[in-house]
Recover the amino acids of this structure.
C-alpha cells in the first residue's frame, strides 16, 4: 500500500495576501499554495467549523480557498490493501502471528479529515484485537498447525464483521486474506526483509562507488585523450606528408606498369576471342539448330555413349509425335472453349438487358408514386394553412370588435361623468348649449355583432349620438398587436380635474 494513506498531504494556511496589479489588488492565495491532486484524489478545505470537498475545480482566488485555514489531500482509491499483524498464543511455547489484509475505501473525505484518521493500521489493529475469542483460537493447537488456526480466525472475523463492521471514520474496510505464520516463518520473513534492506544498501553504496570511479576514470581518460590527440595530430601531419610523396612516386610507376600490362592482356584476350568466334561459326555452319546433329557431335567428341545417343534419337522422335498430338488437341480444346465462351457471353448480355429494363420500370413506378405522395402532402399542407388563416382572421376580428366596444363604453362613461359634473356645477346655465340634447346623446352603446366576412380592420361597431361623431372626428390611433392603443396613454389615466379646468374653472 502507499506510505501515506488516506491523507496524502496536509497544509496549514496563514492570512492571505493582496495580489494583482497596482489598481486591481484583491485578497487571494498563490497557485503554489494549492496542492496538486491526482485523478483518484480530492482536496478538503477547512473553513471555520465546516469542511468543503474539492475535486480540483476551485482556484486560488475562490472565497473557499481564501477563507480556508488548512487543506488536506485525501486518497479515494477503491479497495486499498492494509496489512495488520498481531500475535495469539498457541498450545506450545511459541506464538502464532496473524496477518490480516483489510481492503479500505474512503467514503467520506470530510469525515476522515475532521476526525484526523492518519494511521489506518493502528485503528484496524485495535479493531482486530477487539474481536472476542480471537486469542483463544490457537491456544489448544500446536505451533505447526497453522491451517486450522487460519480457518478458525477467518470464520470468526467473517461472523464478527457481519454483526459489527469495522468502525473507521469515513472509511469502509472489509477483511480479506488471513495468514497465520509460525515463529520460524516470522523469523524467516524478518531475516528476508533485513537481507533485502542490506542488499539494497550494498547496491546503493556500490553504485555510488562505481559512479565516483567512473567519474575519475572519465576525467583521467579525457586528459589522456587530449595528450594522445596532440601526438596523433603530429604523427598524422608527418604521415600525410610522407604518404603524399610516396603516393606521387607510386602513382607514376603504377601508371606506366599498368599501361603495359593492360596492353598485353588486351592482346591475349583479342586472340582468344578471335579463335572462339571462329570455332562457333564453324559449329553453326555444320550443326545449326538441329538437335540430332548436336547429339552426333557430342557422341563424336566422346561426351556421350552410343547407347545414350540411340536413346536420345528415340526420345526425339517420341517428342516430335507427342508435340504434334498435343498441338492438335490444344487446337480442338481452344475451339470448344471459344464457342462456350461466346454462348455464355450472349446469355449474360440478354440477362443484363432484362435486368436493366426491369430496374428502369421499377424506378419509374417509384418516381410516379413519390410524385403522387408529394402532391397529396402539399395539398394537405395548403388546406391546413388556409383553414388556419381563416381561423386567425376570425379571431382577430372578434378581438378587435371587443376592444372597440370596450373603448366606446369607457368614452361614454367619461362623457356621462363629465356631463353630470357640468350640470351639477351649473356650467350649462351661462351657455347656449342645450343640456337636454347633451343628456339624450349619452346612451347605451350597441354591441354590433355583424362583422364583415373574414374580419379585418373595417369591422367597426356602430355608435350613436355625439360619441359616434367624436369617434369620427378624432384622429386615428394605431393599434398594436395586442389590440390596445400604440401610445403609452390609456383611458384609465383620464384626470377629471383637467377636464374641469377646460370647462372654465
Amino acid at each position: 500500500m502507499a506510505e501515506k494513506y488516506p491523507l496524502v498531504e496536509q497544509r496549514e494556511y496563514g492570512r492571505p495576501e493582496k495580489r494583482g496589479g497596482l489598481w486591481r489588488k484583491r485578497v487571494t492565495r498563490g497557485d503554489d499554495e494549492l496542492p496538486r491532486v491526482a485523478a483518484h484524489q480530492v482536496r478538503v478545505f477547512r473553513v471555520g467549523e465546516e469542511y468543503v470537498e474539492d475535486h480540483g475545480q476551485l482556484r486560488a482566488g475562490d472565497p473557499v480557498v481564501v477563507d480556508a485555514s488548512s487543506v488536506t489531500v485525501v486518497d479515494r482509491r477503491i479497495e486499498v490493501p492494509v496489512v495488520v499483524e498481531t500475535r495469539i498464543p498457541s498450545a506450545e511455547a511459541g506464538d502464532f502471528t496473524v496477518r490480516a489484509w483489510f481492503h479500505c475505501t474512503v467514503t467520506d473525505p470530510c469525515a476522515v479529515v475532521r476526525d484526523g484518521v492518519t494511521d489506518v493500521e493502528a485503528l484496524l489493529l485495535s479493531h482486530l484485537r477487539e474481536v472476542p475469542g480471537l486469542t483463544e483460537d490457537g491456544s489448544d493447537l500446536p505451533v505447526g498447525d497453522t491451517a486450522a488456526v487460519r480457518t478458525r480466525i477467518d470464520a470468526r472475523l467473517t461472523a464478527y464483521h457481519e454483526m459489527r463492521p469495522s468502525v473507521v471514520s469515513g472509511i469502509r474496510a472489509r477483511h480479506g486474506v488471513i495468514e497465520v505464520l509460525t515463529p520460524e516463518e516470522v523469523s524467516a520473513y524478518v531475516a528476508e526483509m533485513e537481507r533485502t534492506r542490506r542488499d539494497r544498501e550494498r547496491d546503493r553504496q556500490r553504485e555510488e562507488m562505481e559512479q565516483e570511479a567512473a567519474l575519475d576514470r572519465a576525467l583521467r581518460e579525457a586528459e589522456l585523450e587530449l595528450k594522445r590527440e596532440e601526438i596523433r595530430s603530429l604523427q598524422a601531419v608527418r604521415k600525410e606528408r610522407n604518404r603524399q610523396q610516396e603516393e606521387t612516386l607510386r602513382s607514376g610507376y603504377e601508371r606506366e606498369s599498368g599501361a603495359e600490362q593492360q596492353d598485353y592482356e588486351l592482346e591475349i584476350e583479342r586472340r582468344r576471342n578471335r579463335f572462339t568466334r571462329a570455332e562457333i561459326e564453324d559449329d553453326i555452319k555444320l550443326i545449326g539448330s538441329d538437335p540430332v546433329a548436336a547429339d552426333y557431335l557430342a557422341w563424336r567428341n566422346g561426351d556421350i555413349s552410343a547407347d545414350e545417343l540411340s536413346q536420345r534419337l528415340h526420345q526425339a522422335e517420341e517428342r516430335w509425335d507427342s508435340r504434334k498430338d498435343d498441338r492438335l488437341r490444344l487446337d480442338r480444346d481452344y475451339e470448344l472453349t471459344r464457342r462456350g465462351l461466346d454462348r455464355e457471353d450472349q446469355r449474360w448480355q440478354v440477362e443484363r438487358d432484362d435486368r436493366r429494363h426491369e430496374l428502369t420500370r421499377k424506378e419509374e413506378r417509384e418516381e410516379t408514386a413519390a410524385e403522387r405522395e408529394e402532391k397529396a402532402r402539399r395539398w394537405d399542407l395548403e388546406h391546413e394553412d388556409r383553414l388556419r388563416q381563416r381561423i386567425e382572421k376570425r379571431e382577430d376580428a372578434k378581438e378587435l370588435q371587443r376592444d372597440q366596444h370596450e373603448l366606446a363604453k369607457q368614452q361614454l362613461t367619461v362623457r356621462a361623468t363629465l356631463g353630470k359634473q357640468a350640470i351639477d356645477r351649473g356650467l350649462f346655465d351661462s351657455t347656449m348649449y342645450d343640456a337636454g340634447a347633451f343628456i339624450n346623446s349619452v346612451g347605451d352603446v350597441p354591441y354590433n355583432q355583424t362583422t364583415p366576412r373574414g374580419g379585418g380592420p373595417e369591422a367597426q361597431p356602430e355608435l350613436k349620438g355625439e360619441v359616434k361623431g367624436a369617434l369620427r372626428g378624432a384622429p386615428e390611433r394605431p393599434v398594436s398587436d395586442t389590440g390596445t392603443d400604440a401610445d403609452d396613454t390609456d383611458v384609465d389615466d383620464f384626470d377629471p380635474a383637467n377636464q374641469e379646468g377646460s370647462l372654465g374653472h
In short: The two ends are 100 Å apart (CA to CA).
